[in-house]
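Good morning C.,

I know you're traveling, so I'll keep this short. The sequence:
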Amino acid sequence: MSERIIFFADGRASAPTVPARLEAASGHIADRLARPLHDLRISVTDRCNFRCVYCMPKEVFDKDYAFLPHSSLLSFEEITRIARLFVAHGVEKIRLTGGEPLLRKDIEKLVAMLSELRTPSGQPLDLALTTNGSLLARKAQALKDAGLRRVNVSLDALDDATFRRMNNVDFAVRDVLGGIEAAQRAGLGPIKVNMVVKGGMNDQEIVPMARHFRHTPHILRFIEYMDVGASNGWDLKEVIPSAEVVRRIDREMALVPAAPNYSGETAARWRYRDGGGEIGVVSSVTQAFCADCTRARLSTEGKLFTCLFAGAGHDLRALLRGGRDDAEISSAIAHLWRARADRYSETRTANTAGIGPRAPKVEMSYIGG
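The tokens, ready to paste straight into the viewer:
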């Protein structure tokens, strides 16, 4: 069989323009909708050991799928260099993603390098990592020792049969739960447990998941099944609205709304009335939060994406490996962010030319969630 690779990962990006007039970073920059640059999500690998149906379905990402060669990936030094420039523009939070980031060899070395960065005011970064939990038990302490502060763990069901169908590689729930326990012991908290809810597949697990993580230090977050990429066969009919998630839980365990922790927080917060902790709901399909989006995304091979639903990125790696200095790359980043006007989720249903649900979008496994 011939190798296949989704076109979003094959170089569909041009090197960004370096402005003729260079500028020093001021620690704050805003896009065309007055949204500051505050968060950077960095994908460190396009590979994953799961084949989750909503992200890397096995029928697409099979044994013949051509992942990126190692030479195409940004090195740890390149990632740290770019991250330093973003921090100078106001980034305070960095999250490492994938693919499955713990598959990247010596990932704790990158964590240690990033943990040395400081904001313009001298504060350490909020450095976190999202993982499927499969390798977390063996990596948690090393990550903490290297300077990681928090982890988000993906877990789509407590029922073992349902979870194995979701990850599609026959991986057991108990091993992910073991990873969560190891991360808690290492001090990588508060841990956020992310459940993607797909109607007809795992929505029956909403209440059992809530019940399990209630009265624990962990924060369970329910994420609407999103139309990221082109490989997951997304259908609006399979989206369970966050309002329905809240209704199902509240019917058995009373909830009250809670204020956001900060402007631009993706999850709406709800607390258990009896003080048993909180849940979050991420409603990017039914209740868009584009107006407060402060996130930039860096792909595994150095493409900058200004929206999770973008169709193409901007090739910062070309600038890195083309001999451009920090001032030039920093000015290019500033130019790109100032030109940003992305608001895909707000315009999804309008089907505006080039933005509607049939427009090509980058795969989540390539850009990171």
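Safe travels,
E.
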